[in-house]
């Protein structure tokens, strides 16, 4: 049992009696008692047993020193000096951090291999659309001696590229490099090709590939630029290409990220992701495409990159509808955040990594497609929200909005993997003309409140 020295001890003997205080106790009491000189406080405890009672020193605590009475109050000049000193320190930290980053970047660039670009002599691009044209221009600009063949089906596009060095349908004011050549001859396009960039819309990819399959070498790497899901089969491009070519070992890479074709043509900086199960192939494509205007990262998560690339188009239609209905910024942010969660739920159920959805090919591409007016899918949504019919919208467009076809496939996938996706499901019902945009908003707002996952 222990008690403070300031309490009455249980023994009838006086607390400071010589009979009850041992030599050690006297020493403690004598040497460590508080004195006015030091202001030092000693906490003494009395420990009692059936035979003896002893006092121990538990702790010695010094009170904080009194304030310096001679110190002058701080002036404005003192405060200014302290602020200036803190600013110099902060700037030094930032400068050192930036210098380290620059040295690291230079070190990586000095070790970067260029042998893939050096030995690449020919690249074939399938499709004459806006993004295929932009990537053909980008690749051709990487090496003047490289031949870039665009395999197209429109004779007018073919003629304008070869005679005027521009794609007059999509980029009439942009000159293409001299080493970009258009052709309608599949055999000529594929002969001697080192890489193939696939830029045909997903819903037409199977029929296009069936028509050129006999000219495709089994070891030719395919770089898919197409985003979406095949409506009836729910297949991704990583499944469509090898199955249509009847070659399960056809080298395959998915390229995705925030990248509008117009900004690529204008050589504005952006970043994209190369996804492949073959790390060596991913690095090779990185060497081929990376430039001062295009930063390329690599990943092995093909499923995550492709699912995010497909579903972001459907979400962009939803974002456009919010804009068309003039529901405000709060609604827009809430809807896109909910849509991102739905994409993550489904993709992870399908085996994708959640980090992929928060990266360039996920959140990066989603933000670009949902918030920028250049987005075809967002434009479809805006016009739907403004009261136009889907038929009128699609008939007036000269480019494909993949989200329109993909919406139904997304819902089928959600049912297959037992994932609730209210926002994307609402888009599918609007596209099928089973729900008006206004009614969809009311239904979504009346959904039960659930805990965020």
TrEMBL record:
GO molecular function, one term: glycerol-3-phosphate dehydrogenase [NAD(P)+] activity
InterPro entries: 6-PGluconate_DH-like_C_sf, 6PGD_dom2, G3P_DH_NAD-dep, G3P_DH_NAD-dep_C, G3P_DH_NAD-dep_N, NAD(P)-bd_dom_sf
Biochemical pathway: Lipid metabolism; Membrane lipid metabolism; glycerophospholipid metabolism; Phospholipid metabolism
EC number: 1.1.1.8
Glycerol-3-phosphate dehydrogenase NAD-dependent C-terminal domain segment(s): 301-441
Catalytic activity of the protein: sn-glycerol 3-phosphate + NAD(+) = dihydroxyacetone phosphate + NADH + H(+)
Chain ranges of the Glycerol-3-phosphate dehydrogenase NAD-dependent N-terminal domain: 122-281
Keyword Iron part of the UniProt annotation: no
One Pfam family of this chain: NAD_Gly3P_dh_N
GO biological process: carbohydrate metabolic process; glycerol-3-phosphate catabolic process; glycerol-3-phosphate metabolic process; glycerolipid biosynthetic process; phospholipid biosynthetic process; systemic acquired resistance
Record keywords: Chloroplast, Lipid biosynthesis, Lipid metabolism, NAD, Oxidoreductase, Phospholipid biosynthesis, Phospholipid metabolism, Plastid, Transit peptide
Superkingdom: Eukaryota
GO cellular component terms, A-Z: chloroplast; cytosol
Subcellular locations according to the entry: Plastid, Chloroplast
Family affiliation: Belongs to the NAD-dependent glycerol-3-phosphate dehydrogenase family.
Protein name: Glycerol-3-phosphate dehydrogenase [NAD(+)]
Organism name: Helianthus annuus (Common sunflower)
């Amino acid at each position: 049992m222990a008690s403070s020295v300031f309490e009455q001890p249980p023994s009838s003997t006086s607390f400071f009696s010589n009979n009850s205080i041992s030599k050690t106790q006297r020493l403690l009491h004598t040497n460590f008692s508080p004195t006015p000189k030091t202001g030092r406080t000693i906490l003494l405890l009395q420990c009692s047993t059936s035979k003896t009672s002893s006092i121990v020193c538990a702790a010695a605590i010094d009170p904080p020193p009194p304030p310096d009475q001679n110190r002058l109050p701080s002036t404005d000049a003192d405060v200014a000096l302290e602020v200036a000193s803190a600013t110099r320190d902060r700037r030094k930290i930032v400068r050192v951090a930036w210098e380290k980053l620059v040295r690291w970047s230079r070190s990586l660039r000095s070790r970067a291999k260029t042998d893939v670009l050096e030995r690449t002599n020919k690249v074939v691009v399938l499709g004459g659309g806006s993004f295929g044209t932009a990537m053909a221009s980008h690749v051709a600009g990487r090496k003047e001696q490289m031949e870039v063949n665009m395999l197209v089906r429109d004779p007018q596009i073919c003629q304008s590229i070869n005679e005027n060095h521009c794609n007059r349908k999509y980029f009439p004011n942009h000159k293409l490099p001299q080493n970009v050549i258009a052709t309608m001859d599949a055999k000529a396009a594929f002969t001697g090709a080192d890489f193939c960039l696939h830029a045909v819309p997903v819903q037409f990819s199977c029929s296009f590939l069936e028509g050129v399959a006999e000219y495709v070498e089994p070891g030719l790497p395919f770089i898919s630029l197409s985003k979406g899901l095949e409506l009836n089969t729910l297949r991704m491009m990583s499944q469509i290409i090898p199955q249509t070519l009847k070659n399960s070992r056809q080298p395959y890479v998915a390229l995705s990220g925030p990248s509008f074709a117009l900004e690529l043509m204008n050589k504005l900086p952006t970043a994209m992701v190369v996804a492949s199960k073959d790390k060596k192939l991913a690095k090779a494509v990185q060497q081929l495409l990376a430039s001062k205007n295009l930063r390329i990262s690599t990943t092995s998560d093909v499923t995550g990159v492709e699912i995010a690339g497909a579903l972001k188009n459907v979400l962009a239609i939803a974002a456009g509808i919010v804009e068309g209905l003039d529901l405000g910024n709060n609604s827009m942010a809430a809807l896109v955040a909910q849509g991102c969660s739905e994409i993550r739920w489904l993709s992870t159920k399908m085996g994708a990594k959640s980090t992929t959805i928060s990266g360039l090919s996920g959140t990066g591409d989603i933000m670009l497609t949902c918030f920028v007016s250049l987005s075809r899918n967002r434009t479809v949504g805006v016009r739907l929200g403004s009261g136009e019919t889907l038929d009128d919208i699609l008939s007036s467009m000269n480019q494909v909005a993949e989200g329109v076809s993909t919406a139904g496939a997304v819902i089928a996938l959600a049912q297959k993997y037992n994932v609730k996706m209210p926002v994307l499901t609402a888009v599918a019902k609007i596209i099928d003309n089973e729900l008006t945009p206004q009614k969809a908003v009311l239904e979504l707002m009346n959904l039960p409140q659930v805990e965020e996952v």
